[in-house]
Structures are given as structure tokens and as C-alpha cells.
Design brief:
Blueprint lengths: L1 H11 L15 E2 L7 H11 L5 H11 L6 H11 L15 H4 L2 H9 L1 H10 L4 H12 L7 H8 L4 H14 L6 H6 L5 H14 L4 E2 L1 H40 L4 H20 L4 H24 L1 E3 L2 H14 L5 H5 L2 H7 L5 H7 L4 H10 L5 H16 L8 H13 L11 H7 L7 H17 L5 H17 L6 H5 L5 H11 L11 H7 L4 E2 L2 E2 H11 L4 H6 L6 H20 L5 H8 L1 H14 L6 H9 L4 H15 L2 E3 H21 L13 H21 L18
Antiparallel strand pairs: 1-2, 3-6, 4-5
Keywords: Membrane, Transmembrane, Transmembrane helix
Length: 713
């Protein structure tokens, strides 16, 4: 709705005073002064599957004077075009500084026996990586990015595919809207349908309220397509990021033993080399403690975790725990504890069979209370229920002043005014009943399509919309709609009482103000007469006060009886009272409330695995459990090799499932985004340099004493 109005207003400065027919069949008139043939043409182009992207961008940037221009975009594309082709030589995308570091690269190749062993320990194919390093060292222009990708084996095909969309605009210059969207995994049919809805709506130089909401419906479908595309990109990126991690983690106890054995052996071999004392000392300080732990673990098949690292394991374990909310680990701890922790009142209400009093205390103080504290609070409440109290002096006057302060600004307002009378006062034409009902039907259809998102809440919204539809006539009053709203009786009676006021009422006495609002009703309870009755009672128990509530309807009587039943159940069960006890009193009304509460807060309780499932559609529970086993046991002091192997297998299965779900297919890709490849190459070189830094400085390459410094990359 607002998209259309904003588009038209932004494009041609439409005066919103010209929308007086919005609620009629005539709708908003869009004559040639409001929307030009050029704008219509532009919208029609957007809705046409044959429209090419580059001319469209050219027209958009020209008509709306947008920046950057097509020329500027083309210049930016040309500057990075080498990165957009997998046929580009690998050395051409590296920085001059990296390409010039021949000495460091030669050192890597000269010591490849050790470097390769180091890489193999961590699951990398040293032979393939060596080809990449050799190509950089030799400045081999024939070794392309595609060759590097094949050597590394990283699943970056989707990046190629996405970049093809960009290349289609600025290199090939012929890509159409559907083809461009497809390269970013967006369902083009829904996008084109959304624009077509607008195109058809404005074809007759007007747009009606029904058409506006139909457009909103179509635009929402498009947004869901974009979300699905983002999920696809996230799933593919996650597959890519998991690739080196899956390589790194062993998949069996035997493989874990082999990794640690090779690592310790490599460490021992390096220490036998004639290294500068500074390097030897640094190596022992940084790697030595872990190597000793690894050496001992080879026989026990259990890795001992140092005490100073156990707290870190404990912290990390919460992110893998299928009982711990992710938000609880990333948000303000005290606020989460108060309102959303498993000890909170909200959680107790949603579960049903948990004690409510503990949740009430948690929400009050923001921390988990002791059983004694809860019991003391319950005893205090129980004692107060039997005590006789009186209404505080001046309390009724405070209520009167509150009602007057809220009612005075509404003075003179007619409660029985119709919507059409109200529309006339603000400059609109009377609404057309069919237009309003058809608009409501569009809204009902919209919510019905998405009811699975929040069934209880959406059912409630649909019920209200149907009730509104049923009362729509040319003479529908504002009060008719208010009655359908929560606390409608309170709003209507407040308006009725306020309608008796005038400007001079500001000087009224407290007695006069009370007389104005004596008929104010809240949930079927007459507020001021009830207060007067309570004051007459003097000292009385809470139950006596409740018995003497003055009601105006059966709803009021029912509310009072329900409160009395809650108090009776509390007296019986004390600190053991639960949400289910409340449900037995209030029935479906309470059940719907709790269900709506659950639907509106459920994401707050999502674990890391549930969030990953939400954004990828893959069940991460097995992997989360496996890594929780590692981190939780590590927090206790040790990690078994079997647990490491299990996590490796689970993660590999997860990555394969992700890859299968989000694979593009066997389409041959000619060009692509090389960002992922550059990162991969840099990461491998960094790992290799790390190996050299610790393991490769032989005496033959160092002519100075222990104070010598060696600069790498």
C-alpha cells in the first residue's frame, strides 16, 4: 500500500489531498499530471521478462538522477573485471607485494618436505597446494584461478554463478531481469508478478484500495523469494566454510592417533634442527605445552585439557547445548534471565506445569531465587489475603483525576459518529461498502496464506477482520468497531463520559469530575461505584472486596468469579500453583493467550541448532550434540579421541547434506566471483608461512646469532 503511494508521491510530488476517493471504487486518480507515460513505460519494462538489465539501469539512473550512474558502475566493474573471470591468471589477482616475495616462496618450496608434512597433519593435500605456490613463485600466467580452485577443491561454484549475473550486465550486456534474478537464486516469477500487479493497477490511470493491498500481497511474496534466496546463499556459503574444517577434523580414533603422532613427530624433528635459539625458545613456549599433552594422549586416546582452558570450553559448550537459547548467550544476561529464561514467568506460563511463583520472583528480581525466598513470598501473600485492610485515603480521588486527565482531551467527541461522517470531516469521500469488504477479503486471504507462521495469532486477526467485514454498512459507527477491540467497553464508556465535558470542565470540583465518569466501565466492572462501595466497607478482606464489586454485565460477574477462583487455588497450592491451574479456570481464553505468547516469543528460545535449521532447512542436532560432547567434557578436564572422531563424522555428514540441498547442478560455469578463491589461496599461503615460521628456519639460512630477526610476508 505505502509502496505505491510513496512511489507516486516521490516521482511526481503527488498531493495527498488528492486521494479523497481512496475508499471508493474510483480510487486515486493518476492522470497525466501525476504519472507520466515515461513512468508507466518504466513500470511496464520492470514487469516484462524480456527487459534487459543494462538499458533498464540506464533509464532508471537517468530519469531519477541516481548515483552512481551506469558509466560509473561500468568503470567500477572494469576495475575488478579480472576478479570476475575464472580464466584470469592467479598471479594477476595477487597483490604486487605478495608476488614479489620470491625469497619467502622459495623458502617454502625448498623446505616442502616439512611444510608438506605439516599440511598433511591437518588434512590438506600438500601436492595440490604445492602447485599453487609454484605457480605464484614462477609467475606462471598459464595457471588460472580455475586451476587453483581445482587444486584446492573448494566448492565455490555458486560464487561463479552469482558473478555471471554481474558479468551479464556489464560484460555481455544482454542479460534480462529473470536471468539476472536467477543468478542470485531469486524466483523471478514472483518478482515480475508483483510489478505486473502494479502495472495492471495503474493502466487505467487510477489505483483502488483493493489494488493497493493486492500489490502489497504480491510484494510480500517477492520478499519471501528474496529470503529464500538469502537462505540458499547462506547454505552454500556455510558449505564452503565447513570445507576446510571438515578436512581438519579426523573421522576415526585411528586417524586422531595418527594426526597427533605425526604432529609430535614433526615437532621433535624440528627441535633436532640447528635453529636460532630465539626460534627454538619461542617454539617450545608456544607449541611445547600442547605437544606434551598430545604426546601423552596418544596412548590413552584421551586429550587432557589444562585447567586454564576449561572455562573457555565451558563457555563454548553453551552454544552447542540443545537446552540453551542462543539469545541468552548473546543478549543482556539480566534482562534475558528476567523475562525469557527457563525460570521466568513467561516460560512457566508457556510450559504449563512449572511453578508460577518462582517465575514471578525471577521476573521481579532478575535472578534465580532460592526455594526459601519463594516460600517466604508465598507466606506473605497468603497472610495478606486474610488480613483486613481499607482502601487508602484519597485513592478514589486519584482514580477520578486519572480518568479526567485522559478524558478531557476527548471532550465533545461524538461516540455515535459514523465512519463516513468522520471521513467527510477530514476531507474524504464516503467509503464504498463493496470496496471496503473486498479489501478485507484480500487481507484475510493474505493472512490465510501465511497462517502457519503463527496459527493462533493469525486466526485471531482473521476473526477480527471477519467481524469488521460483517459490520460494514454505510452507517457503521466508530463505536461499532471499538466494541470489537480488546477493552472496547472501557474505550466506549470513556468516550461517552468525556462527551459530557466542555472547556469549562477544567475547573470542575472532584465531586463534579466523579459525576462525569460514574458510568466508566472496565471489563464489565463499574469502577467508581465499586470504589465508593469499598470505601463504605471500611476494613475488609480481599474476598469481601471482590464480593462487593459492582458489575454492569455478565462479563464483569464472570471476571470477578475467576479472580476469586484463582485466589482459592493459590491458597490451596501455595508455591506449587502452575499455569495449568490457571488454565482450568479461564479455559480457552487462557489457552489462546499462552499459545499467542508462545508464537510471539518462540525465537527467543531457539538454540544454535534451531537457528541454523531455520536459515538452512537442515537439522543440525547431530552435529550440535557431538560438539557439545567435546566442549562439555573438555570443561570437565578431558576429551576422548572417540568424541573428536564422532564430531568429525557428524560435521562431514552435515556438510554433505548442505551441499546436496544447495547444489546448483552440473551447469558449466565460464566466469565467476573469485573472492572465495582469493581467500582460500591466502589462507593456504598463511598456513604454509606459519609452518615455515615455526619449523623451517635452518642454520644454513641464518648467519646471525640468537638476536637475529627474520621477516616473512
Amino acid at each position: 500500500m505505502f509502496f505505491t503511494l510513496f512511489l507516486l508521491r516521490s516521482a511526481h510530488g503527488m498531493d495527498l489531498g488528492e486521494i479523497k476517493d481512496l475508499f471508493t471504487k474510483n480510487g486515486i486518480k493518476l492522470d497525466q499530471d501525476d504519472i507520466s507515460k515515461e513512468i508507466k513505460s518504466l513500470i511496464n519494462q520492470l514487469a516484462d521478462a524480456k527487459t534487459k538489465m543494462l538499458p533498464l539501469i540506464q533509464e532508471l539512473t537517468t530519469k531519477f538522477e541516481l548515483s552512481p550512474t551506469v558509466e560509473e558502475l561500468q568503470t567500477s566493474y572494469n576495475a575488478v573485471s579480472k576478479l570476475m573471470s575464472n580464466k584470469t591468471a592467479l598471479v594477476d589477482i595477487l597483490t604486487p607485494e605478495m608476488s614479489a616475495q620470491k625469497e619467502e616462496l622459495k623458502m617454502l618450496l625448498d623446505e616442502w618436505k616439512i611444510v608438506g608434512k605439516f599440511l598433511r597433519v591437518f588434512g590438506f593435500d600438500d601436492g595440490k597446494i604445492k602447485k599453487v605456490v609454484e605457480a605464484i613463485y614462477k609467475n606462471d600466467k598459464k595457471f588460472t584461478i580455475e586451476d587453483a580452485i581445482n587444486a584446492l577443491g573448494y566448492p565455490t561454484g555458486y560464487l561463479y554463478y552469482m558473478a555471471d549475473g554481474i558479468n551479464g550486465i556489464f560484460a555481455e550486456k544482454g542479460i534480462t531481469i529473470p536471468d539476472f534474478l536467477a543468478h542470485f537464486f531469486i524466483e523471478s516469477k514472483k518478482f515480475l508478478a508483483s510489478i505486473k500487479t502494479l502495472s495492471e493497477a495503474i493502466a487505467d490511470n487510477k489505483i483502488t484500495l483493493v489494488e493497493i493491498f493486492k500489490e502489497f500481497d504480491a510484494a510480500f511474496d517477492t520478499s519471501l523469494s528474496v529470503i529464500d534466496a538469502m537462505r540458499t546463499i547462506f547454505g552454500k556459503t556455510m558449505t564452503l566454510l565447513l570445507y576446510p574444517i571438515v578436512q581438519l577434523i579426523p573421522k576415526s580414533e585411528k586417524e586422531v592417533v595418527s594426526r597427533f603422532t605425526d604432529l609430535v613427530s614433526l615437532y621433535d624433528d624440528i627441535l633436532k634442527e640447528a635453529l636460532p635459539p630465539m626460534i627454538t625458545s619461542q617454539l617450545k613456549d608456544t607449541a611445547g605445552p600442547f605437544m606434551e599433552i598430545a604426546r601423552k594422549s596418544i596412548d590413552t586416546k584421551e586429550l587432557t585439557i589444562p585447567e586454564d582452558a576449561r572455562e573457555t570450553f565451558q563457555f563454548i559448550s553453551t552454544f552447542f547445548d540443545n537446552q540453551t537459547s542462543l539469545i541468552s548467550q548473546t543478549s543482556d544476561a539480566s534482562s534475558f534471565q528476567k523475562y525469557f529464561s527457563k525460570d521466568s514467568l513467561i516460560h512457566a506460563l508457556m510450559v504449563g506445569d512449572l511453578p508460577l511463583m518462582k517465575g514471578i520472583v525471577v521476573t521481579m528480581i532478575g535472578e534465580k531465587p532460592t526455594d526459601e525466598r519463594v516460600k517466604n513470598l508465598v507466606n506473605e501473600i497468603t497472610a495478606s489475603l486474610d488480613e483486613k485492610e481499607r482502601i487508602p485515603v484519597g485513592f478514589n480521588e486519584t482514580v477520578v483525576e486519572y480518568l479526567f486527565d485522559n478524558g478531557y482531551p476527548l471532550r465533545g467527541m461524538k461516540v455515535d459518529v459514523t465512519f463516513n461522517e468522520l471521513l467527510k470531516e477530514i476531507g474524504f469521500e464516503p467509503y464504498d461498502v463493496d470496496t471496503i469488504k473486498q479489501t478485507i477479503d484480500v487481507l484475510i486471504s493474505f493472512f490465510d496464506k501465511h497462517k502457519d507462521a503463527a496459527p493462533v495469532i493469525i486466526t485471531k486477526i482473521k476473526r477480527i477482520l471477519n467481524e469488521v467485514k460483517n459490520i460494514v454498512t454505510p452507517d457503521t459507527k466508530v463505536s461499532d468497531l471499538i466494541k470489537l477491540c480488546p477493552f472496547g467497553d472501557a474505550v466506549i464508556t470513556l468516550l461517552e463520559c468525556s462527551s459530557k465535558l466542555d472547556d469549562a470542565s477544567i475547573n470542575a470540583t472532584i465531586e463534579q469530575k466523579a459525576a462525569y465518569f460514574k458510568d466508566f466501565t472496565f471489563q464489565g466492572i463499574k469502577v467508581l461505584p465499586t470504589l465508593d462501595k469499598w470505601i463504605e466497607l471500611g476494613n475488609a478482606t480481599l474476598d469481601t472486596f471482590l464480593v462487593n464489586v459492582i458489575t454492569s454485565s455478565e462479563e464483569g460477574k464472570k471476571s470477578v468469579e475467576q479472580v476469586r477462583k484463582v485466589i482459592a487455588v493459590f491458597n490451596e497450592k501455595k508455591e506449587k500453583i502452575t499455569g495449568n491451574d490457571i488454565k482450568n479456570i479461564f479455559g480457552k481464553e487462557y489457552t489462546d493467550f499462552v499459545s499467542a505468547l508462545n508464537e510471539s516469543t518462540r525465537f527467543t528460545y531457539y538454540t544454535t541448532g534451531q537457528w541454523l535449521n531455520l536459515v538452512t532447512g537442515i537439522d543440525f542436532t547431530p552435529t550440535m550434540n557431538a560438539f557439545y560432547q567435546i566442549t562439555a567434557s573438555g570443561a570437565q578436564g578431558s576429551v576422548k579421541f572417540a568424541a573428536i572422531a564422532d564430531a568429525g563424522n557428524k560435521l562431514e555428514d552435515q556438510q554433505q547434506e548442505l551441499g546436496k540441498k544447495y547444489e546448483i547442478g552440473n551447469k558449466k560455469l565460464s566466469t565467476g566471483a573469485i573472492i572465495g578463491i582469493v581467500v582460500a589461496v591466502l589462507a593456504v599461503i598463511a598456513i604454509s608461512c606459519f609452518a615455515v615460521y615455526f619449523f623451517v628456519f635452518r642454520k644454513k639460512s641464518v648467519d646471525t646469532a640468537s638476536s637475529s630477526q627474520v621477516n616473512l610476508v
